[in-house]
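# nightly structure sweep
# worker-07 picked up a monomer target from the shared queue
# config: single-sequence mode, recycle default, output format = structure tokens
# input follows
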Amino acid sequence: MNVASAQEPDEAAPARDRYVQELLRLYRETPGVAGRVPRADRELARALYDHNVPLYAVANAFIVAAARRARHNAYSTPLPQIQSLAYFRVPIREMLERPPGYRELEQLRQLLVSQR
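# output follows
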């Protein structure tokens, strides 16, 4: 048995845990999110890590989705709080397929900052 292969699962666990913790921290800080993290959200965060979804793509999806909601709320009845990380599945896929440019992300960040 290769020693490096035997160590891989142990070495991957801390990286996975850090990824999940950071993803959930960003999720809780996203405007419009209820703030609690049910077990299903932790499982989805682990699945995103297991599917090699970059953390920056998830963070960008949080920004884009929150900005869309902020724009919607500015013109109509406010939407209810986001209750699950699953809400962001489509925006995450969008970020992987067609990531926004730096300028667009900065504009969305500024929109969110001005909404607080």
